[in-house]
C-alpha cells in the first residue's frame, strides 16, 4: 500500500484530479474501477473532495519503472514557438509527445501540460485548438483564452482552415494527384464524411512522397484514407504494412510514422496568416537516404554512354 498526505496547497480539489496530476489517467481509472483507493481509510469516489491533513491510500501497485520509461521518451525539453501574440501560440510539435494526457501519459508530460507549466506564471491557461497524433510532428495551435479558443474552433469546424501535411506512402502511386472521399468511422461508430486531397511530390523506388490537405478533420483521417487506398503511411504502426515497416526501419532507421503537419493557414484578425514548420530531423534524414538510394538505382539502370 502507498500513502499520500494532502498538503495545504492541495485543498478543495476532487480526489480524481489530485491523482491524475501524479499518475497516468489509465492507472487512476483502474484505482476507482477496482476500489483500490481510500480517503482516510474509507472507500472513495472520484468526486470526493480532499482537504489538508487528509490521507490517500492506494492499494494497487503502480509500476514506477514503466512510468519513468514513458516519461523519458516523452519529455523532450522546451517547445519550439513558431508564432505568439496575446491570443494564440503556434508551436512546432515534436514527434513522440502526446498533445494531452491519456491512458499512459501524465498531463505534465503532454504538450498541453508543458504549455500550462510555461504560461501558468503569467496567469495564462493555454487550450489546444486542434490535435495531432503523438507520432505526428508539425504545426499545432493553442489559444490563450476561452474567447480566442471559441473563435478558432469555429473557424476549424466551418472548414476555413488550410492544413497541408507531408507524408510518405508505401508503394508508387500512379496518379499524380487525386481525392479520397470515402466515409470513415466517427467517434461513436457511425460513418462520417471525410475528404483528403493529395498531390505527388516525389516518387522513390518503393515509396511515394505526397503533399496532402484535409477538407475534414476526422480522427486518423490521413492514415485511414491512405491505408484503405492501398498505400498506407510508411511506419504507421496501427494501419500500416507491418512487414514493409520492419524492413524500412532496419534500412533507414525511422522509428515513427512519416507524417508531418507542414502548414496551417487561416484568417486571423482580418488577414490571412500562414504558419509553416520545417520537416523534423528524423524525416529529413530518411528522405536523404531515400534520395541517395534512388539516385544510385537510376545510375545503375541508365544505358552506358
Describe this structure in words.
- With 305 residues, the chain is an alpha+beta fold.
- 29% of the residues lie in helices and 28% in strands.
- The protein has eight helices and 18 strands.
- The chain has helices at 15-20, 25-33, 64-74, 111-119, 146-157, 221-229, 242-252, 281-301, and strands at 2-5, 13-14, 37-39, 42-43, 49-50, 55-58, 80-84, 88-93, 127-128, 137-143, 162-170, 177-180, 184-185, 191-192, 196-203, 207-214, 259-268, 271-276.
- Strands 7, 8, 9, 10, 11, 12, 15, 16, 17 and 18 form a ten-stranded mixed sheet that branches. Strands 1-6-3-4 form a four-stranded antiparallel sheet, with no helix packed on it. A two-stranded antiparallel sheet has the order 2-5.
- The longest helix is centred in the C-terminal third of the chain and has 21 residues, at 281-301.
- The chain starts with a strand and ends with a helix.
- The model is unreliable at 65-76 (pLDDT under 50).
- Pick out the low-confidence regions: 65-76
Estimate the mean pLDDT confidence: 88
Q: Secondary-structure element order, as H and E?
A: EEHHEEEEHEEHEEHEEEEEEHHEEH
Distance between the termini: 78 Å
Primary descriptors:
18 strands, 10-stranded mixed sheet, alpha+beta, 305 residues, 4-stranded antiparallel sheet
